[in-house]
Amino acid sequence: MKPYYRPLPRLATWLRQYRSPSYAEQPRLPASFEELASAVTPAHGQALWERGYTVIDGALSHSTCQGFRDEILGLRASGLLHLNSTHLVKGSTRSLLQKHGIFEAEVAEKGIQDAAPSIEAFQRDRTLMTMLSLYLPQLPLHSQLTKVQLNAGDGSCFPLHYDSDESVDSRRITAILYLNPDWQRGDGGELKLYPWPHEPVTVEPLNNRLLLFSTCRMLHRVLPASRERVCFTTWMSVMKPGSPPASLSRLHQQSKAGSMLPDALLSEVEVRRALAMLAYQEEWKCSLAESHRDDASRDALLTDFAGKEMHSPGNSQWRAFMSIAVVP
C-alpha cells in the first residue's frame, strides 16, 4: 500500500499550534523538535506499514540528545530510576520478576517530569505523532507516553517479547531514541527485530538514532550489553483500537475444517505470532535465561515457557505451515 502524502502549508507553524490543547499556556518547546517534521518522510511511513519497522538517523540536534542523556543520567544518580520487571501471570496470580541492570521510569510521574523537563516536553510534543499519522492515515494516532531507560552494561538485556497485544491496549507504534555518543561495535545492547517470516534485523543503539516499529506485531529483544546504554521509549496509541485479531483457537478450528487456506491463515496476526514463537523457541528460551538472575523464580518462568511451547494449539500444524511459507 502506497503511503498517503499531502503537503501542508506552513507545516512548522501548524505543528507548534497542534502540539497540545494547552500549548499557549506552556513554555516554548525546543526548536529542534520541529526537525522531526522534515526527518520523518513518506518512505518511513511506508516502511513502517509494510515491513513493521523503520530507522531514522539524525532526527534531532546533537545538543538536544545530549540534554536528554544528561537528564537520564541525573535521574539514575538521584535514585529515581527503578529496576525493570517481567510481569508473570498464572491464572489469577500476578507476580514480578526483576531483570538485573535495567533501570527505568515513566515520564508520567511528576517527580520524573520535574527532574527531566526536556524529556517531559518531548512527551508533550506532537510532531512525531502528527507526521506518522499524516503518512499512515489508516493508523490515526492520538496520544503517547514515554519511559526512560538505562542499561547498566553488565550483561543486562531483554528477552524476546512483543510490547503489547491488540486485545490488551491501544498502543500501536513504539519509538526508541538512542542516546549513546560513545557506543562502538562490541559494546552490545543492540535491539534485534524478528519480522517473521523474514530474517532477523539487528539495530545498533547509535546516538541520535530513532527506531520505529509495530508495538503489537514486531517481536524483538535487547541483546546483552557490556557497556552502559541509554535511551527512552515513546508508545503512540490510537483513539479507537477497533476489533482485536481473531483468536488462535478459532483460527485453528477453521484450519482443521478446511475453511481457510494456508496463505490466508499465515496473514492472521495470532498465527504469525505463534509461528514466530515456534521458529525462535530456543533463542526465546535462552533470552529469558539471560535476562533474569539465576534463581527459583527464573526456573519457574522457564518451566512455564516450556509448557506453553509444548501445548500450543495445533503445534504440529503450525510447523506444517512454516514449511510451506515462502518469502518473496
Describe this structure in words.
It is a single chain. With 328 residues, the chain is α+β, with helices and mostly antiparallel strands. It folds into two domains: 30-238, q2cbj1_9rhob like domain (Jelly Rolls, Sandwich), CATH 2.60.120; 248-324. Helix content is 37%, strand content 24%. The protein has helices at residues 11-18, 36-39, 42-51, 62-77, 110-115, 117-124, 127-135, 248-256, 262-266, 269-279, 281-291, 296-310, 315-324, and strands at 53-57, 82-90, 93-106, 141-151, 158-161, 171-178, 191-194, 201-203, 209-214, 219-222, 229-238. Strands 1-9-6-11-4-3-2 form a seven-stranded antiparallel beta sheet. It has a four-stranded antiparallel beta sheet with strand order 5-10-7-8. The longest helix has 16 residues, at 62-77. The protein is globular, with a radius of gyration of 21 Å.
